[in-house]
Design a protein that fits this description.
Helices cover about 40% and strands about 15% of the residues. The chain is of the alpha+beta class. It is elongated and about 55 Å long.
């Protein structure tokens, strides 16, 4: 049985420093090779924190598996913002198109508690509440009843 190391790294910008280096060094594998592999696999998530799992077997072979960034990171990337609002109920920092919310929900479907796209999209819209982001120019709490009423069924 090998070792498993789980870390959050900046997409495409992993280094041999903490948290990877100290975790992988004692395992006796080439840390640079692991870092290069992680950077290659996470390049598309540039600027976002990405969950990465490195599995090392008894023969010092490694496999790198990359997860999907947190929903907040995906929403912020779609909106083009660096961070959420300091006062989400009063200060709006971005606008998420509804199509992007559907895209994020489908991307994160395996990690969400929802069984269908409609409720997964509502989870993404709920994330917008805490970030201070509107959805199609409307406050997220105004979008929930519209989703339930079928206003966005053409996107789902």
């Amino acid at each position: 049985m090998g070792e498993v190391v789980e870390v959050l790294v900046a997409g495409g910008k992993a280094t041999a420093g903490p948290p990877l280096g100290p975790a992988l060094g004692p395992l006796g594998i080439n840390v640079k090779a692991v870092v290069d592999e992680i950077n290659k696999k996470t390049a598309e998530f540039n600027g976002m924190q990405v969950p990465v799992t490195v599995e090392v077997d008894d023969k010092k072979n490694f496999t790198v598996s990359v997860g999907i960034p947190p929903t907040t990171a995906l929403v912020m990337k779609e909106c083009g913002i660096a961070k959420g609002s300091a006062e989400p109920n009063t200060q709006i920092v971005g606008d998420l198109p509804f199509e992007a919310a559907v895209r994020i929900a489908r991307m994160k479907a395996d990690d969400m508690l929802s069984y269908e796209t409609r409720t997964a999209v509502k989870e993404v819209v709920g994330t917008c509440v805490s970030l201070g982001v509107t959805v199609d120019g409307k406050r997220p709490k105004e979008v929930f009843p519209l989703i339930d009423a079928g206003e966005y069924d053409s996107f789902l």
